[in-house]
Amino acid sequence: GTAALIWNEIIREKVTNFIMNQSKEQRILNFVLQNAVRGDPCSVVDAIDKYCSQKEWAMNVGNEKGLILDKTVEEANPSVALELGTYCGYSAVRISRLLKAGARLLTVEFNPEFAAIAKQMIEFAGVQDKVKLLEGPSEEIIPQLKKKYEVDTLDFVFLDHWKDRYTPDTILLQECNLLRKGSVLLADNIIFPGAPDFLNYVRKSPHFQCTNYPSHLEYMQVEDAMEKAVFLG
């Protein structure tokens, strides 16, 4: 798995970026703009999956773990959801297509280049009325959610950003009183590349009830999993 990622993420990507004079993320967006249907989020998700499984690997949640994400979102039926780590907007589009009328998703992205791509992806999918993209570090944005973004509590949180931020940001969500009894956290990539500190924290905490969903790394046959942690109050 590590060797495959080094090849895809570093060697192959850098060479292609140099030859084409554009980023992989821009290529993903271009493929979607040319092959998906404007205003159809399912078509956008399918186009990204097609590109990343057939042409260039990318760190979206992907089609296999995407089904776990879908099921968790449908069960949580959130009015207010938070995503940490937007990347190209794949999971923001995937989550928002399942939201009930009047519900909203706040998605946080630290990288301005990724945020610019994601903004175009979200608008092309036609879900911009449901999704608010917040650009900056999660540790700065989370404490602003209540006052600046009028969030009372979060019904659903998807953790898919820097793995070493999973635990401190979960603690921050608790300290800022953003979790209520029944709030659902879903964390991606807990085996590969791995988030052992997060697993240790939520599984040992009396405040969370955890469920593990074995799966595979997006677009690869590398073992991975997602962890659902329901806040008990």
From TrEMBL:
Its EC number is 2.1.1.6. S-adenosyl-L-methionine binds at residues 61, 91, 109, 160. This is catechol O-methyltransferase. The keyword Hydrolase does not apply. Pfam families: Methyltransf_3. PANTHER family: CATECHOL O-METHYLTRANSFERASE (PTHR43836:SF3), CATECHOL O-METHYLTRANSFERASE 1-RELATED (PTHR43836). Substrate binds at residues 163, 189, 218. The gene is Comt. The keyword Transferase applies. Binds 1 Mg(2+) ion per subunit. GO terms for biological process: catecholamine catabolic process; developmental process; dopamine metabolic process; methylation. GO terms for molecular function: catechol O-methyltransferase activity; magnesium ion binding. Keywords: Catecholamine metabolism, Magnesium, Metal-binding, Methyltransferase, Neurotransmitter degradation, S-adenosyl-L-methionine, Transferase. Its cofactor is Mg(2+). InterPro entries: Catechol_O-MeTrfase_euk, SAM-dependent_MTases_sf, SAM_O-MeTrfase. One of its GO terms (cellular component) is axon. Belongs to the class I-like SAM-binding methyltransferase superfamily. Cation-dependent O-methyltransferase family. Mg(2+) binds at residues 160, 188-189.
